[in-house]
Amino acid sequence: MNIWGITHRGVVREENQDAFAVHTLSQTQVLGVVCDGMGGARAGNVASTMAVEAFNALFFELWHAGMLSADKMLESAAAHANEGVHHRSVTDSDCCGMGTTMVAVLLDGAHATVLNEGDSRAYHITPEAITRVTRDHSLVEDLVLRGDLTPDQAKSHPHKNLITRALGAEPDLHADLFELDVHEGHFFVLCSDGLSNVVDDQEILYEVLHGGAPEDCCQRLLDIAIKRGAPDNVTVVLIQC
């Protein structure tokens, strides 16, 4: 297994409020996490950075202990990150109301566990297709699910960036979890909405499978976003199974 990642502030934003981490745990285990902060320039950066650091700290403690399942390790690490971000948001006036998205994937052999809160995404790519694993916790996603908007209308909706759930927004976290079987030749892409808002699913699929060397894929996807104006921070993580 291989894992790569990249982040960039984009063309418009003055600061990068995204944060990510990639870890090779063993020959058959990798971990990736992407966070996209919110709550003002300084607070958004604080939230995403805190979340990644706190998530990593507890995850590795649990992983080395080897006593919990993949889903429990991800849930516990995310809950720990949530607690830290929420506490900072209610005790530091400069960080009042801050929060962050989080999407994480732990691949262990032929099994993948994905955790999601907010509108950062995880995609599962096979030689035949790309599938979005996660569901955005956003206003427009809810409207699409209710049938009030089509997916195409959602792409240009004026409130498409309003999320309905975020890590750190509440004292307790109830993130979504997904379990998947994977095989050699599959890929996972994690990304913030700075990528998914300007690069569509089929373009991601093409770059992963046909665009060139996988170790250069994150840069290629970032380059596409930048050429299209990259109005938001852009973060991409690629995992090769």
Tell me what the structure shows:
- This protein is of the alpha+beta class and 241 residues long.
- It has one domain: 4-Layer Sandwich (Phosphatase 2c, domain 1), CATH 3.60.40.
- It has 7 helices and 11 strands.
- Strands 2, 3, 4, 5, 6 and 9 form a 6-stranded antiparallel beta sheet that branches. Strands 1-11-10-7-8 form a 5-stranded antiparallel beta sheet.
- Helix 1 runs antiparallel to helix 2.
- The longest helix has 25 residues.
- The N and C termini lie close together (5 Å).
Structural class from helices and strands? Answer: alpha+beta
Molecular shape: globular
Measured distance between first and last alpha carbons: 5 Å
The major β-sheet equals:
6 strands, antiparallel
Architecture, CATH level 2? 4-Layer Sandwich
Q: What is the H/E order?
A: EEEHHEEEEEHHEEHHHE
Work out the helix count. Answer: 7
Radius of gyration: 17 Å
Number of domains: 1
The CATH C-level name is Alpha Beta
Oligomer, anyone?
A: single chain
Mean pLDDT: 93
Instruction: Give the amount of beta strand, in percent.
Output: 25-35%
**CATH fourth-tier homologous superfamily:** PPM-type phosphatase domain
Poorly predicted segments: none
Using DSSP, what is the number of strands?
Answer: 11
Helix content: 25-40%
CATH topology: Phosphatase 2c, domain 1
